[in-house]
Amino acid sequence: MSKTIIEAKDLTRHYTVKKGFLQKKGIVKALESVCFKLQAGKTLAVVGESGCGKSTLARMVAMIEAPTRGSLEIDGQIASKPTSQGQRFLPAIENRKSVQIVFQNPYASLNPRHKTGTILEEPLLLNTKMQHAQRRKLAEKMMERVGLRPEHYDRYPHMFSGGQRQRIAIARAMILNPRVLVLDEPVSALDLSIQAQVLNILTDLQEERGLAYVFISHDLSVVKHLADDVMVMYLGKIVEAAPTKSLFEKPRHPYTAALLSATPTINPAARKKRITLTGELPSPLNPPKGCAFNPRCANASNICRTNAPPTEVAADRQLACFNPIV
Amino acid sequence: MKKLLDIKNLSIDFQTAGGLFRAVDQIDITCDSGEVLAIVGESGSGKSVAMLALMGLLPWNAKVSAELMQFDSKNMLAISKKERRKIIGKHIGMIFQEPMSSLNPCFTVGFQIVETLKLHLGLNRAQRRKKAIELLELVGIPAPETRLNAFPHQLSGGMCQRVMIAMVLASNPKLLIADEPTTALDVTIQAQILNLLLSLQKEKNMALILITHDMGVVAETADRVQVQYAGQKVEEQKVESLFQTPHHPYTLALLSSLPERADGRKLPSIAGLVPGQFDRPPACLFAPRCSFATSLCNKEVKKQSNLLGQALCNFPVTYTQQKNAGAKA
Questions:
Q1: Which terminus of chain B, N or C, has less C-beta within 10 A?
Q2: Picking from A32-36, B168-172, B318-322, which range would have the lowest pLDDT averaged per residue?
């Protein structure tokens, strides 16, 4: 068994929001008691609708934000812990270097005023004592690795297509040789034929360097292809987590089942009967009593409307539901 | 019989600083009542632009030329702006990708629906309000009376898209163009909206043109599919046969690069990029990325018969070829 790189225990993040002048402040529970482990060389996919806390989790793992409660351990060291009133907790530089992030929109995540070379060398400039020539050599090596040509070194981001920009973003994240890469919807802004190219780079890099990926996506076909484990989230909580194969074959939480059946498949012969969810994601400011999913759930019984289901761990599966699908 | 929409040889050029840019290159589009046509392609394949040309919504620097652009036996190329205004919005409705930004944030959704009704149907005030409530009910918005007074920012993306659909349906259009109607929405909401669109289309026997890049959506909704690449139509087939036996190498490559179809850990990807304004190949636009291409493909490109999906290719992929390739792999 390979080494556990990330261990999240009871990771929670609340935001306080002002509702208006002279009104009580509200609390948005963006992330509530999330626990998971991630091993080197493995991919953990996080799926869910917008507003379910996927991106908050990504920011937490990347140490952009500190949790309200719980802890995050990277390589056995505490990387992130609660601070008073959301102040940033500064983790050891070694930990920070070992987690890097690739964002969704490559048109917004690269500084338009910097050339590719500057973008790629900035992490080295900040984190290492390398000389200019060394930095350039490493940057060029990285560019070659992700399929960019050496003449691209002196170009600005606007001269590249979306796929090439995403390659730059991946190269930037990889240049410090991290152990964990957080991928926040890395291919959802890309065209189909480019998506496959970028996914291939990611699988290659993972095999080469034993990287662990936290892969956030709403495209289940990509998740099924890439991930080893899948975590399904709903309103800040994990509703189900299991190895990819068993989750796709036998979803047990009604929400997982609905999510899987709502995803269109490319086989026209298999136009299946969808479980169409009625209604929408409730407001996180005012979540429903009991299980957050109960107003949209077909299996909901009385207990679901009053009590929140506890998370049960059985075999390799985490499940939070009173009436799971058998 | 005449088709509801019949477009032949449509080309659209944009006057840009770098010269003329051909966004749409000799495209034919037909669609009949009660049919769902999907137009698929990557960004820059001219799928939206062709539809905007039909609606007359292109900016001044676009030059539209076509052999025929007929809707409901009217020549859309020759009619005046005033006459076109009577057709678009009334007989041709369009839904756009971003529901949040296609509604006016300054007015309530009720006002915006009523505005359409006033313009196209000429009902009186009370009738308009009643009809607006009916429409909101039709698209499945709970508590429609109170929702009429809501502003777009108070509604979620899915709800806004429902309001857009209600607006478009207000005048009972014969043709509905949906330009990536679900791209900005979550999968569960996407399923709701697609189901709604399809059931309304059946009920009212509308023609529906669905512009999308999501192959899954195409497979689950369309009757007929037309694949576009860099402004050209490269293939057209019934949906079942397209997914079974794509004839154009581009379609074949695109379908096999989908993670859903891959068996190994590595995806078969298409090398290279879509050609831009300055590096357009001389004949076949897909030739530089195509594994079947020969030197002939740089000189000319032939359009195949209906049997081969009208593939714009000198060496269309046939069923036996695919079977052989499958057997080898």
A1: N
A2: B318-322
Kindly state the average pLDDT of the residues B31-56. 90
Residue predicted with more confidence, A24 or A230: A230
Q: In terms of C-beta density within 10 A (0-12 exposed, 13-18 middle, 19 or more buried), how is residue B179 classed?
A: buried
Which two tokens mark A201? 């780079």
| Residue of chain A with shortest Cα separation from B276 | A161
Residue of A55, A273, A280 to mutate when probing chain B, most B C-beta within 10 A: A280
**Min Cα–Cα distance to chain A from B67, Å:** 31
CB of B9 within 8 A of CB of B67?
yes
Residues in B closer than 8 angstroms to A274, CB to CB, are 191, 195
Structure tokens at B301: 């490109």
Please state the separation of Cα A195 from the chain's center in Å: 17
Q: How confident is the model at residue B122 (pLDDT cuts 50, 70, 90)?
A: confident
What residues have CB less than 8 Å from A300, skipping those under 6 apart? A291, A293, A294, A323
Given an 8 Å threshold on Cβ–Cβ distance, is A266 in contact with B191? no
Per-residue b/e over A16-55, b at no fewer than 16 CB within 10 Å? eeeeeeeeeeeebbbbbbbbbebbbbbbbbbbbbebbbbb
Mean pLDDT of chain B: 88
Q: Which stretch of A278-292, A298-312, B49-63 has the lowest confidence by average pLDDT? A: A278-292
Total-model pTM: 0.85
Would the CB atoms of B262 and A262 count as touching at under 8 Å?
no
Give the best residue of B199, B267, B270 to mutate against chain A (max A CB count within 10 A): B267
Chain-chain contact of B186 with A203 (C-beta, under 8 angstroms): no
d(CA A309, CA B294) in angstroms, rounded, equals 63
User: Which residues in chain A are contacts of B141 at CB distance < 8 A?
Assistant: none
Residues in CB range of A81: below 8 A, 6 or more apart: A66, A67, A71, A72, A89
pLDDT number for residue B326: 54
Contact B156 A280 (CB under 8 A): yes
Average pLDDT of the residues of chain A: 87
Q: Averaged over A238-252, what is the pLDDT? A: 93
Q: Which ipTM was obtained for this model?
A: 0.81
B181 Cα to chain A: minimum distance (Å)? 14
Contact between B191 and A203 using a beta-carbon 8 Å cutoff: no
Instruction: Over range A275-279, report the average pLDDT.
Output: 77
Q: Cα A173–A229–A105 angle (5° rounding)?
A: 35
A174-203 burial, b if ≥16 CB within 10 A, otherwise e? Answer: bbbebbbbbbbbbbebbbbbbbbbbbbbbb
User: Residue A116's closest CA among A162, A171, A161?
Assistant: A171
CB contact under 8 A, B42 and A271: no
SS3 A164: helix
Of A50, A193, A276, the CB nearest to B257: A193
Express each pLDDT in B251-296 by its tens digit. Answer: 999 898 888 887 777 888 888 888 877 888 888 999 999 988 889 9
Distance CA B112, CA B166 (A): 10
- Under the banding of pLDDT at 50, 70 and 90, the label for residue B322 is low
Q: Which of chain A's residues have a Cβ under 8 Å away from the Cβ of B257?
A: 192-193, 195-196
What digits encode the pLDDT tens for the residues A192-237? 888 888 999 999 999 999 999 999 988 888 999 999 999 999 999 9
